[in-house]
Design brief:
alpha+beta, Phosphorylase Kinase, domain 1, Transferase(Phosphotransferase), domain 1
Amino acid sequence: MKVSHRGNVGHAGRAQWEPPRGPAPSGRLFGRYRLVKDLGSGGMAQVFLASMDGPAGFEKQVVVKRILPEFAGNPSFAEMFITEARVASMMSHPNIVQVFEFAREGDGFFLAMEYVSGATLGRLVAASRAHGQLLGARFAVEVGIGLARALAYAHALAGRDGTPLRIVHRDVSPENVLVSREGAVKLTDFGVAKSEMTATATQAGVVKGKWSYMSPEQVTLRPLDGRSDQFSLAAVLWELLTGCRLFAGKTAAERVVAVLHAEVLPPSGLAPGIPPQLDRILLKALGRNPAARFAGCAELAEALEQLRASEGWTSGAEHLAAAVSYYPRESSPSGAALVPGSNASGLEELVGTDVFSVLSELSGVRGNRLLPPAPPAGRGPDVRRPSAAANARAEQENRANWMLLSAGFSGLVASVIH
């Protein structure tokens, strides 16, 4: 990946580039890229389909992602961009969206990224739900294998000097997974990743990611390793299988409660045709104690591959491609999925939420006790209240977690998560 800064910002005789609003004028140049189409804007970024042109008719489609001018001076947004570029510069994997260049144009940074024509998992789940259908076990297993391989690669990555980077994505969610029209699975958006390469530490008491897909150790600001991403991946696969979000809630507080205490049902209890072995794999990966999960995502990928073989399923790129093409209206080109903050989970979750702001919500949840919400009315049980025995066993943990939250995590966890 090329990392550069265009150093003539404000030089005399050169007009600074101003981002077009609405459809990008065809042929307009942005750095060395010719803008072709406006793919959309999210909470902080604008994305264009662009072309990198060369001699003799050479043309390569890319996605150009840039921070919107009103956020260009915000250190948090700039840090996310820089983090994404620094981490992505080290990666080359078929299941990870490639970043080609990180540079400065005008007053802000931009990324030139691989263009993936297809759909996000979030769009596919919503589309299948709208049609009264489920994506099915084979679809989920194939997606799970690709993502587990991608995460295993990222977790094992070392720097050029051989030092382990200890990358944790921290935002594995349906909006950050793309499925191409050819059936390729791609993980994207390392903007909130934790690694040894990040320039600054996360502020104490701030959690980054999306509550419904965080691991218990992530929501309680305990030290993270790759098993946290494994938990998030399993929550995504559970949603693919059932069409329901596993850790649901109307507020951040309710979602935190669900992550910590909601009983996790085997997906086969909510959807037909799920092999018992797949139930066991997901329940293991969703263990609240990291030690109860698979040793790493490579081991999870192996378990899913063994399941695929035992079911007689071949490698399923065609199966995934068929699902993308089946929902043509909902599965439009997914460049907008590359925009941080463009999904419905809310920009505040992606950039980082002050955990203490959740405390006031928690104080009104189920009488100050960290109990899971009742299942939403009128839909399948995303979560189920624990039994009386399980609730009694959890009472000590409830008190401990409440102390952990209300004490601001001081003295109980590391004050800064790197």
